[in-house]
Amino acid sequence: MAKEKVPIIGISASIIVDQGGMFPGYHRSYVNEDYVSAISKNGGIPLVLPVTNNPLILQLRLSMLPMAVQPMLIPKQLLAMI
User: Is the dihedral of CA 30, 61, 8, 76 positive or negative?
Assistant: First the structure.
């Protein structure tokens, strides 16, 4: 089965506070769908990075970065399904 390198592209999330609905006042992490769609349509894998100021989480994310930036080898049949 042929494999192709696929880039993983990080998208920084934003925070929005619900103004109404069932959970007013809740803080939510989000990204606009057009960012996710643009990466997917161009052959990448979007990776949403939630906002945090927790030093432990930031350190763990940075320690995983070299692993995450390596292009993944994905079978072409799976890419066709994306």
Answer: negative
Q: Is the pLDDT score of 52 beyond 60?
A: yes
Domain-embedded: residue 78 = no
Task: Tell me if 75 is assigned to some domain.
Answer: no
pLDDT at 60: 79
In a domain, 81, yes or no: no
* Full residue range of the structural domain in which residue 30 is found: 1-52
How many domains, the chain? 1
Please compute the mean of the pLDDT values over residues 44-71 and round it to a whole number. Answer: 76
Reported as a pLDDT band with limits 50, 70 and 90, residue 30 is very high
Cα 71 to Cα 44: distance, rounded to the nearest angstrom: 9
Distance in angstroms (rounded) separating the CA atoms of residues 41 and 10: 15
- Residue 5 is assigned to a structural domain of this protein: yes
Phi (first) and psi of residue 67, to 5 degrees? -70, -40
